[in-house]
């Protein structure tokens, strides 16, 4: 250890191989003492670096982390070869005056914009244009000041870096690695627009599944509204509009949930048949199928949320005023008219089976949801994950579909079901899941299964002698 | 970079820059073969280090990890420049005799105490006092033997290091980094007391929210007890004490849950108005507000737990003996007295709306809870997280408040509601949420919203020309 | 490695000590352009390495990541000293022809087999046998192509490495570390069988708990079936087989759930008494106890799943046709026979208490489940985790046991309960939890507690003067 202080070795290792040596020599410079500047500086100090803040008002800039120096921009820039620019884009003009002091230095642009498309060019590109003699690197902007202060964890551990100078990027990567972060190189500075848009994203991968959910919900809401409330009003003159709040919701939610669950498993089945038809797995799927497959998780989680609501709506049924009233009315009528109804074992079987299958289906559904949590799915091996999501997933779909068939029971054959010649909503909801299950059963037929497995392991029908590479 | 090829630099850097070289040269030494010693040694071996154990009874010390040597303390100390002291504090006296062998060496104190405040000084400080010639570094004590053996993950990945010698800390940091851990420097050895208290902490950030929850629950329990059970006994001579178990619980839990949910969002609203009033975001909030804001997550999760209990208590209502008895009694009375009640659509609307709004509110509430899981919130961008927690959070608060207003309905105006001139509990629970929602609506008024946004982006009313630094 | 100290060694050891230097000099080579080859190459490029693909058909091999070169195997092998072999085992024969080009090179075998025990020897061992002049290292096979492409997170961050050459392993470890992964050395190449079996594992630690759950469920199902359905048929000639779907399920699930929850806490109690009896904690537990303790988490989570189903089955009771029919029948009979039943406060107390205790028990149970999520338990200190899992766990067990006792109530004494002289299922389920709770109470007696604590801190009855090492 003591030998480390040897003069000749120190100066020779500015960034590579012995970053800790740097600590002794040259501080890092942080421009700006706002939230981001303070958090970044504090973290750098904790990691063992010396930090010099550059500020327009070195004396009146507010509190900086203990152990850091504050000085003017020009003085701070002189001290370090790496400068973190934690200043709003609007004040980048200030930097232009420092172009001589910043010449040849690595400038790390950590800035974000409050909104997308506020400026014609990315902040980092703008900074590079202002200071052509410096090496601008875009980095750290996807980390929040909060994450920097509290120590990064899990997903927050990734730092995306882009810039035109490989050496400058390497210098920044060294610092980030020392801070316990994982560095991902995203190429040249032209990628900085993408990096700056990243923290402004709002659930991009949820957009399509949400649109599908909203669209289906709206469609089935009006469908059921017409068949139930409006039909009742037109046909019998009865106003049952109060049923919108619970009864209709409890019809629409399970319908949409079942359809969306089956939409999760449909693309997998289509893909298998496509591979069978093509006889290879090396040709790309059409774009729409790729996009569809990428949003299966979101489709499934939305379906689970709707199933959860369906469970709650079902469980409160006996508490509803309407249900209690009807129940009392029924008993009173029975007593008054001296009727006796007989207990029907078949109805009991059907009613209990339908409830029991629904509960088991929902139980598995919740299990699928839990294994979708990042920390749980990360702890599973690939085989375990696919076992749960594929095998248990299809069993869930089967149980939920069976639940709906049992719910329907003899209503499929009763003419009174088809008001205004339309089938009830739950029948419509059975179409896609039934198709998926039938196709899945076809794929499980031994000879088909064998072909698919062979193709997925790299076998090709048309090029039997070719090299086959590893699947995973 | 290329200069690294210089011949003399290689051999001079035993730990820096080329830690793998060390493997060939010098083992690390572990004193003590207990759980911690064994786990640490095993992990060091897996990482590629050679390990020599020091033991008082080298021959009878029990199993050590395969590949490690066991020898006397003195022999082991001779071999290595870094010694991990995995011995109970009570036996530190043994170390004093080794002071000559340990002179100049780095001693890593990994010890923890079974309780806080057991000794007047931290273990590491005590060790340094016993061996003034060695460089004591406190480290690794926040990792459990279990985590070391099974490989660290996520939060367990952080190693806090403190010590008086920067070089000694650097040497320990190198080893920790090689083990896949993230190092955070906590300064000089005087910080070791804090590090030793860390693993003994028991939910410090939950204490205040729990106290609030318990206090509110106790208050409302007695309030409702007096208004329901005691009033009924005094006024009508009826003993309805059995209602404590379910009915009272199901009044107290939702009341406290709603108040605590609104307490989550109150500090944010207060902070916004404070910033508006001050015209800057650069002045610190008062301490009480800071503390309050830091425990919002815990407040919200406790409120969610109580809401979950409320849901369960509500759903079992129809199973209760009391409810079934009253229902039967009602029907029998109706039949006997030949009464007929008429179906009231307004009541049906109100009852269904109140249930439906409650279910939707609870659904969103669960969503907020899920996004609070560390692995989920880490996977969200800052904007996504704040969208969920702020926007959806306020919608949740609105739905839950509406649920309570709908529950109250015309009871607000009925004089019989105000037993002993006191309002029922649910009315009291509406005060804070209503205030929060009104203030939040005020903040959403365009001109106010614009001012707040401007201030949060760094604008200051009093210093219009000053430098503004990056928010995040 | 030892050559690293030599001046010319820098250019020869691109991977040791200064991995970033490599970027400038020597590419890494990837054989095979399948899923794994592409993903690995892309990640290496992102990390800053140059990548050369070796392919049998350099011109027709399909898309490779941008920035990578594609050439023949022989040419690619020439360029790099580290070669990632991303080819199916069946095509390893191709490699034999390249033995001269691959001589002295580090070959990283990343392959997995589709099934266990497909081949007599591990893929990596086979590769080493084919190419005795190369240094085969098994690594990266536990990462999926998916995880490599999307950046590793949490558990996916660990790379297991084994091989016969320490230098070759070091070279691979350097690359993995640069990629943000944590390296664990698993020893010589003979460990590769174990590493190759790893991704094919299917919930090995869940097998025993699942067998217990299925065994108990089957036993209690038939037990309850005989006592309920068959007894009713034999004794009264009534067919109540429809009760299988809900009533029987709702008896079996809570019974098995309670037993499994108590099986979670039984081994801890046994271990404490064993330590008390032996007077030391340094002797190993018998194997069956070790295995039992290792699957406590899985036992508990399965018990929670069954408790969850029990809750759902209970909550749908009032919706069941059978229950509604019986309820109406009861009222109608009462009216017709002009009976009046009196409200029984004791029954109300018991019914409400039993429900309320069950709800609180389930609430705590869910809390235990949430703290078992990897990301949550990682965020807890050791003391916090053991507080929740041990203290709250025993409270949960107590509440659930009390719930069952309250459910039984006076049925314990009623002779009609014991059909065919057998106790009902819920009584059987009370045996183990009652034993666990009694033993736990014994351990909480101050003098016993003190002894256990002392032993767990390292005190030994038989060797009072010996050295005691650190617990954790």
From TrEMBL, chains A, B, C:
SUPFAM superfamilies linked: NAD(P)-binding Rossmann-fold domains
One annotated GO molecular function: metal ion binding
InterPro entries named among the record's database cross-references: Fe3_Rdtase_TM_dom, NAD(P)-bd_dom_sf, P5C_Rdtase_cat_N, STEAP_metalloreductase
Membrane topology: Multi-pass membrane protein
One term under GO cellular component: plasma membrane
Keyword Transcription attached: no
Domain Pyrroline-5-carboxylate reductase catalytic N-terminal: 28-113
Catalytic activity: 2 Cu(+) + NADP(+) + H(+) = 2 Cu(2+) + NADPH; 2 Fe(2+) + NADP(+) + H(+) = 2 Fe(3+) + NADPH
Entry keyword Oxidoreductase: yes
Annotated GO biological process: copper ion import; iron ion transport
Residues annotated as domain Ferric oxidoreductase: 255-389
Ranges annotated as spanning the membrane: 208-226, 252-277, 298-323, 353-373, 426-448
Keywords, in A-Z order: Copper, Endosome, FAD, Flavoprotein, Ion transport, Iron, Iron transport, Membrane, Metal-binding, Oxidoreductase, Transmembrane, Transmembrane helix, Transport
Intracellular or extracellular location(s): Endosome membrane
Cofactor: FAD; heme b
Chief place of localization: membrane
Pfam families reported in the protein's UniProt record: F420_oxidored, Ferric_reduct
Homology family: Belongs to the STEAP family.
Protein name as it appears in the record: STEAP family member 4
